[in-house]
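User: Here's a chain of 669 residues. Predict its fold as tokens.
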Amino acid sequence: MVSVSVSVSLRQPLNMPDPNMNGDQSKPKSKRASRPKVKTGCTNCKIRRVKCDETRPQCTKCVRSGRKCDGFPAVNKRPGEVALIAPRPDSSSTSPPSHSTISFANPPDSRSIIRRPTRTLPQQNSRLTPPTTPVVRFIPKNYMTDFLPFDSQEGQYFQVFRTHTANELSGFFDSDFWTRSVLQESHAEASIRHAVVALGALYKTLEKASESPPGSPDNNNTFDTAPNHYRFALQQYAKSVTRLRESMMNNETNSQRTILISVVLFTCFESFTGNHTSAITQIQHGLGLLEERRQDKRQPLVRQRNDVVEDELVQMFTRLAIQAKSYDMAFHFPHPWVIRLTPATNPTTPQSPTSPSDAGSHDGSFDTIIPDTFRTLQEARTALDSLVERGMRFLEAMSSFYHGPNGILPHEVKSQGSGFRTQLANWASAFEQLLAGRRGPNFSNTERAGILVLKMTHLMSSILFLMGFSTSEMDFDHYAPYFKDIVELGKEVVVDEELTLAQQKCGSPSSCKHRQPHTNSFHFPGITSQQPGLLQDEESYTHIKASFALDLGIVPPLFVVATKCRDRKIRREAIKLLKNSPRREGMWDSILCGRVAQWIMEIEEEGMGEYLGYGLGSMDEAVVEFDRRVMVKEITFDMQKREATLRCGTRGARDGDYDPRANETHIWW
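Assistant: Prediction complete.
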């Protein structure tokens, strides 16, 4: 069962009688006005001649009376009428949401966020509002779809999600899940509809916070402010969770596909707002459901489910599992926020699900099929996802051997590791053609960035996998070329973003008016757009706007460089990219990662002298000695308050043993 920290108060029914009315029975009763008969509703309600509330997939009348709802007949459309995916406004009015329906556990503070330019979907309707213009300029009276109706505000936020947010959440890769599957399901499932509207409202929160002056309402619209959009997002999220819970309790929702899509949306919302523990909990539930489904398929006598969970959705959870596991590997969360990819005593529990893409074999083999050359970006991405996931399961299994009674790695495990290393090399060879041709005319800016991100992920995965066989931080020095390549690739992504936005907004550098950042009045929860104290130099990337995507991108690879590379120049470049191009990729926040890496670097370089950037002949070439090297041991943080407690120590040191390098600090950002 999913949980939510947002509380919702029940509203009074709209048609309650006025208690102050005088029930005078002497007045003659007025006749009921004649109205056309309603021709919609389920078949049972039509036969019984009762009014159907048309709740889908089963109406409330049938559920309460214990009848089986026979469904709804197809609506006869007028000739030439076309059903639209997105609702259309038919008039305008303003109506701010009721604030009585929401309670804040952590209200937003007064600081602000700006965001990077969005990638809009191709639209046939040229009247769509461009992303640089606030979309919620009017609130239409009513929105209707072929299935579930939208009220005035919900429909407008749904339009925001459809035209902007869906593509933004895909990150550096196109995704039919966001641009097709979620949109279709939102018209038939109330929980998904409310979650989609909530994400659209969060997008509007970011958009309004980026304006200068930020959050300033229009003359005719006092609702169009970042705090109001944020409140409405929380309201809709609470409704989404409540609706899913009610549907499951009333047996209205038996589709695992619907539940899994809802879990993805809940994970997205929690990550968006900085609630990483809640996001991990949602991922655990989703992985547990997929594990139950996999176990059912193994039992020939178990009745198979009729609903289809397509590969696209399974792949989505594979990436979420990778994300949560990478987060745990970096920051070492305590139980119960630990994702296990290898089998445990009870693999069907949410705390210990197996790999979502696992076909039932846990022998540690790496059977990812890799062609000689990848023909598409999606083909390369799917293969790398499989490799990374299996590599993480291998490292998880190796950790259990290292922490065993004898701490010896069996020969068969080493042999499997050798095979995985070969698979990584084969992937790099097959990917070379795409990487070399990324600047060609056949690739869009988004595809080019996706190619760069895949290569960064491959290099990071290679480093972490090979270092899984080592217990010394000194061995990271062997991967200096990998660290350098990751930084160069990451810089290419960030510079491309900066140049694209600068050209769109300013035309030429000489006419640029964005040299100095403005101070916003609304701070989006947990994310900041500018690291305090940074100098505005040529590489400050002043046009890049803080952004959110559910998929991983450049942040995890840059964090590995910033904490594991002891080349003073390369390390500082990685930290600068993390701090100066603010973004949140799933649970990975670039500003937090930059601050953590800064602290680790300061501890390791204490006493080495100031880094001047002059190169040869200075202390810039000094190497961090073995007895100064540390690793992150534990981190606890509050993304809403933007503060964290960090603990570092010696690599390989067991908990409870004396560690002379142990250190602890508290940071804010």
